Amino acid sequence: MKIYVITPNYTIAGVPLAQLRFARALLNKGFQVELIVGNVPEPYQIPYVEGLEITVLDKGHARKMLFPLMKFFKLKKPKLVFSAEDHLNVIVLLAAMISRSDAKISCSSRVTPFDTYSDKFFSKRWFLKQAAKIVFPRADVLSCVSIDMVTQYNSIFKNLNHIPIYNVIKDDLSIERMQEDASHKWLNNPDQNILIAAGRLAPWKGFDSLIKAMPDVLNKKNVKLIILGDGPMKDELDDLIKKLNLQNTVDLPGYVNNPLSFYAKADIFVLSSLVEGLPNVLVEAMMCGCTPVATNCPTGPMEVLHGGKYGYLVPVNNQKAMSEAIVEALDNPIPKYLLDEAVEPFTVDNVVEQHFSALNLKKELSK
């Protein structure tokens, strides 16, 4: 059976990276797999994966994928499709309905519905909500990447049944990439405490709050903070670092090709977000051995860290609590066996089995 995995674009971000890992996981299970991508903006490139077919539609927005996907359903007559992200999920389901496809379709939601939909009449998010109500019943499976998100979705779409299925985080390639060299001036000193954070440099990631917490950390510990990623707040964060005289403590190296290699050489991973879906980077860093310090934002960190069993949770946008938790984490890191235990639900076998079980296709895994 050939399986199709669809994502709206490819960048170094949660959804496309998770879809690529899922495609690799299915490929390693012995299935033929084609990854369909709406767009690959510069400077990004989809990495080569042996045996994986890749189709890029060159459509910069999910809605522009409608007609190519209608053609896809009519010509290729797929039997099984996995889609992720609600804007794309609506388009995939609409294309399947118009094409009268009998494909089994599994749709995964990746961010809180309160940031995706609105009750404000005739707004874009209101129209999306109305469209979702019409087409979501066509899906064979509706899933969310965290249990808290399931509660949110089921409160908005009361006649539908969303279920939790995590992303694949830990696979063979990820383990290999952890071993690669990370080029940064601060990572070559074994006596240096390294804090690391990663994500789009945007307001909801809370990196400004994290940087403001650093002077308090420095009063007790000699640390360096590396924040990986790029985005619209780059200049603002640079100015904040200069204002607090942290140029020798905080670095923004921008986009890096392999963040896993950085995590593997860091002591603490800090998630400072105001809101998340399920923070893949948090799980990735734990897989690499980082002790996590995370805001207790909606949704995901509380769930991933099991209320504090697997890491340190702090209130959102509380710099004092953040600095205290970082110091505590440096003094009392989470043991490796507990980090491994926390990551187990995000392994290939567990995630693929959940998807196929939800689709009543578990027998396909044994073929």
Structural account:
With 367 residues, the protein is of the alpha/beta class. It folds into two domains: 2-168 and 347-365, Glycogen Phosphorylase B (Rossmann fold, 3-Layer(aba) Sandwich); 176-345, Rossmann fold, CATH 3.40.50.2000. Helices cover 39% and strands 17% of the residues. It contains 15 helices and 13 strands. The chain has helices spanning 14-28, 66-76, 86-99, 124-135, 147-156, 172-178, 207-218, 234-243, 259-263, 280-287, 301-304, 319-331, 336-343, 348-358, 362-365, and strands at residues 2-7, 32-37, 53-56, 80-84, 104-109, 141-144, 162-164, 193-198, 223-228, 250-254, 268-271, 291-295, 312-314. Strands 3-2-1-4-5-6-7 form a seven-stranded parallel beta sheet, sandwiched between helices. A six-stranded parallel beta sheet has the order 10-9-8-11-12-13, sandwiched between helices. Helix 2 crosses helix 3 (86-99). The longest helix is centred in the N-terminal third of the chain and has 15 residues, at 14-28. The chain is globular. The model has no long low-confidence stretch (mean pLDDT 94).
